[in-house]
Design brief:
Layout: H1 5-24, E1 29-30, E2 48-60, E3 65-76, E4 80-86, E5 91-97, E6 100-101, E7 103-107, E8 110-114, E9 124-133, E10 149-152, E11 157-160, E12 180-189, E13 193-195, E14 199-206, E15 209-220, E16 228-230, E17 233-238, E18 244-249, H2 261-275, E19 284-288, E20 297-298, E21 305-306, H3 312-320, E22 329-330, H4 337-353, H5 359-368, H6 392-409, H7 411-424, E23 429-430, H8 432-443, H9 448-456
Parallel strand pairs: 1-4, 2-12, 18-19, 19-21, 22-23
Antiparallel strand pairs: 2-3, 3-9, 4-8, 5-6, 5-9, 7-8, 10-11, 12-15, 13-16, 14-15, 17-18, 20-21
């Protein structure tokens, strides 16, 4: 059928517009090898947004070998010619992008992947990495001087990865600003229990192995993922407030408990749900392993991980992180006080709730404990620097900041502010500037001087 002159002109115009649109589209370029965090410049990766991780791992405690297959679903945020994932030491045998074999190369902890064709901005794609080896934990001063990440135990493994050790066991965009949901499937020797994030989907025995599937359906930062394996006594149920609870304790610690982990976890979860807003995840709980060489506990999302049975205060602290750190995560690691200062202050709130000591008195005790010439006061809490990001000043001065804020704006505004903060940034990321703005909006006051005094000043503030 012949086209009219106007129809032919219209077709030509449409073709020209399409040509110009294609011509104007930026040429594909490599994604950045990091998001530019000042503490960890190569953590995370540019050019895409992680959406979902499907992790399939098999672990052999006798040899320490891990074999894994990770499929990441992501959305391209630029026209990509290649992109990176973070992976520490483990050997990669195959990479596929959208089911097609892709090229890759290693540069330290960077895994650089080249798909067969460019990935267009806005396109959702999958990358599957098959890998294996004996994972090596990270070490050094960052986490209280101990090793962290994938840590072998006598009967399995203890996995606690803050701030940058998720890459010790799976390829990822390893920065809290790039959250995703997870399915974690674990194969372990029969007789061992594998505990991970979220809720248990299934577990079954086949041959000499136990297969376990966990699902975390709420967005999670990579460092909060775990696949802790060992011999555990497991207790499940619901808190009095109705939150599902799963507590796994190494039987070697059963006679050394100084605290009822299950009962305290249930009580604290319910109390923080009243103070901080609804519990943000599908399940609360605890993983308590006999791992004294770790020397720390971590707010693993939905089930904090304890390297030994700790006291009630530790449980209070780690559960507060479910709101402050896990649901609301830092935008950059320099804002770590938003995690640790809030969890430290939660310990003061719990003591006040228990009738032990008011938060005001806890503030004064912390303030009076250090003379003006103490190095404690020389830490800039709002930007403590990488090697001091877990210094006591970040915890204690962060808590002092919150008590000073409470006394400035009053209890009514302060206890509106906490759930407003966790609600506004639920499952997202936030910064110190975001918190200051919200505190001013909720209180109706200008608060620059208060935050300058407690977060940015490197000397002992006057009361």
């Amino acid at each position: 059928m012949a086209l009219s002159r106007s129809a032919r002109l219209g077709s030509l115009a449409t073709a020209a517009a399409s040509f110009l649109l294609v011509a104007a589209s930026p040429a594909p370029t490599p994604g950045a090898d990091g998001i530019g965090d000042s503490y960890f410049p190569q953590l995370g990766n540019g050019g895409f947004d992680a959406r979902h991780y499907s992790l399939d791992i098999a672990y052999a405690p006798d040899t320490g070998r891990l074999d894994g297959r990770t499929t990441l679903t992501a959305r391209a945020t630029q026209n990509l010619s290649s992109f990176d994932l973070d992976l520490h030491k483990l050997q990669v045998s195959r990479v596929e992008v959208n089911g097609r074999r892709a090229g890759f190369q290693r540069d330290g902890d960077e895994l650089r992947i080249s798909p067969r064709g460019p990935l267009s901005k806005g396109r959702t794609f999958t990358v599957t990495v098959t890998y294996g080896g004996v994972p090596e934990p990270l070490g050094g001063p960052i986490v209280f001087g101990s090793s962290y990440g994938w840590m072998k135990t006598d009967d399995g493994v203890f996995v606690a990865c803050e701030p940058n050790a998720a890459s010790t066991w799976f390829p990822s965009s390893d920065h809290p600003s790039d959250k995703a949901t997870y399915d974690i499937r674990i194969k372990a020797p029969r007789g061992l229990t594998a505990v991970s994030n979220g809720r248990l989907v299934s577990t079954y025995d086949k041959g000499g192995s136990t297969y376990t599937h966990w699902r975390e359906s709420r967005p999670m930062a990579t460092y909060l993922a775990t696949a802790t394996i060992g011999k555990f006594d497991v207790r499940t149920g619901r808190t009095p407030g109705g939150v599902p609870i799963y507590v796994a304790i190494d039987p070697k610690l059963s006679n050394r408990n100084s605290v009822d982990v299950y009962a305290v976890t249930a009580a604290v979860t319910d109390y923080w749900s009243r103070i901080f807003g609804p519990f943000p995840f599908e399940e609360t709980g605890a993983i308590v392993d006999d791992m004294p060489q770790a020397g720390f506990s971590l707010e693993v999302q939905s089930k904090p991980a304890y390297s030994a049975v700790r006291n009630e205060t530790t449980i209070v602290h780690e559960l507060a992180h479910q709101w402050f750190g896990d649901s609301v995560s830092v935008e950059r690691w320099k804002d770590i006080w938003l995690n640790e200062g809030f969890a430290g202050y939660a310990q003061w709130l719990w003591a006040e709730h228990q009738g032990i000591r008011s938060a005001h008195d806890s503030f004064l005790a912390a303030y009076d404990a250090r003379p003006a010439d103490s190095s404690f006061w020389r830490t800039e809490v709002a930007d403590p620097q990488r090697d001091s990001m877990f210094a006591s000043a970040v915890y204690q001065r962060g808590a002092m900041t919150l008590q000073a804020l409470r006394e400035r704006i009053g209890d009514q505004a302060f206890f509106r502010l906490l759930p407003a903060w966790t609600g506004l940034h639920r499952y997202g990321n936030a910064s110190t500037a975001d918190f200051v703005r919200l505190a001013e909006r909720v209180s109706g006051q200008r608060l620059d001087d208060l935050f300058q005094k407690w977060l940015f000043t490197t000397r002992k503030p006057a009361l």
